[in-house]
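Give me the fold.
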Amino acid sequence: MKETNIEYAQALFAIAKENNSILEYSECLKEISDIVEENAEYTEFLDSPAIPLLKRLDAVDEAFKDKMPEHIVSFLKVLINNGRIRALKECIEEFMKLEMLESNALNVCVYSSVPLSEEQKEKLIKKLENKYKKTVDATFSEDKSLISGIKIVIEDEVLDGSIKKRLKNLKEVIK
């Protein structure tokens, strides 16, 4: 199933690239993602076999036709037609990954036990950019459970330099 989601995202990404609209499509998909996340019943409605297909497709037109590019609306309709609307979130995530690869950017989440200063943030971003040879788009959050230090999540990789992690490792060694 994941492969199918990737294929849907790749198809939409190819269209976005062809139209030089990757950023526009990305912003629209983020907006749709937010709407769907805030209104879980909307996905239920769009996926319900009890509601005629034409009514569900018309609802998409009514909600997005004048607000989103035609290809985005068509993409949503294809997902509905193929019974894949519940995979929308995963398709959007795949689209965003493709966007990052295309732009040579890296999404990074940094968790610290205390807020980092702007200088610390800039230094960390520079180090990551030098290490990965990519532009870094970083999100910073405070996580008191770390006790001290930071944890960096880069896509599927976790760099954990927190005291919490060190204590956990020490505990495992003692066992």
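DSSP finds eight helices and four strands in the chain.
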